[in-house]
Specification:
Blueprint (H helix, E strand, L loop, with lengths): L1 H29 L1 E8 L22 E13 L9 H16 L3 H8 L4 H5 L3 H4 L9 E2 L3 E7 L2 E6 L8 E11 L2 E13 L11 H23 L4
Antiparallel strand pairs: 1-2, 2-7, 3-4, 4-5, 5-6, 6-7
Helix pairs in contact: 1-6, 2-6
């Protein structure tokens, strides 16, 4: 019986790996994405839409991981009677609410202790946010910059103060289309021996898959809103 259970477990695990690999590949074909890592000394290392990183950070003394995912949709596919700015706020609310159910968020929830942190996971709370500076979401993401077409979150990790990070979600209207984008960047000093979470292949793959799916499904959510 033990051998049978072990065999079944191995088959299920193998099937899950294959399923998520195929899922990742399909997402990749629907999303424009870039990913890079290295020192921050060059201007080429600067992110596309994240603007809140101090200029003094861009030196060869820092190592960073960066990824960006975007997808465009015809404006005519979105509700005509809802402004693009309001649609964007709805997208951020929806995506951050969905994220609370992801494995990453569940792990963050386990180490969240304060009332503010616990409240930041509640769907009823996220649904009221306009993401003003200082707002906290999912115990880890605090709004550091807000404009009509972008929200930038500062990422602060407990017990990992050596990590600095940003998450930005934004949009740009390009002719008859709207391009939605999500961008993440984490950096540390080059002489720091501890690795950042996204330096670990499995966690980086999970982050990448989640970011792509949230943009892809989030746009589908907007197109299905009632006009």
């Amino acid at each position: 019986m033990i051998r049978l259970l072990a065999t079944i477990s191995a088959v299920l695990t193998g099937s899950s790996v294959v399923y998520f690999y195929v899922f990742h590949q399909r997402l990749s074909s629907r999303i424009e994405h870039t990913s890079r890592q290295g020192k921050l000394a060059s201007s080429k290392a600067k992110p596309m839409i994240i603007k809140s990183i101090p200029e003094s950070t861009f030196t060869d003394q820092h190592f960073a991981l960066h990824d960006c995912a975007s997808k465009s949709v015809p404006r005519s596919s979105l509700p005509a009677n809802i402004s693009t700015e309001l649609l964007f706020t709805k997208l951020v609310r929806r995506n951050m609410t969905i994220f609370t159910h992801f494995p990453q968020a569940l792990m963050i929830r386990l180490i969240s202790k304060t009332s503010e942190e616990k409240k930041s996971f509640k769907a009823s709370h996220i649904a009221t946010l306009d993401f003003h500076e200082g707002d906290l979401v999912c115990g880890l993401y605090r709004v550091i910059s807000r404009s009509s077409n972008k929200v930038e979150f500062e990422i602060k990790m407990k017990n990992m103060e050596f990590i600095n990070g940003r998450l930005a979600i934004g949009y740009e209207e390009k002719g008859d289309e709207v391009a939605f984008c999500t961008e993440t960047m984490m950096w540390r000093c080059v002489d720091e021996k501890q690795a950042m979470p996204l330096e670990k292949p499995v966690l980086r793959w999970m982050h990448e898959t989640a970011a792509w799916w949230l943009i892809d499904s989030g746009i589908k959510y907007l197109t299905e809103l009632e006009s």
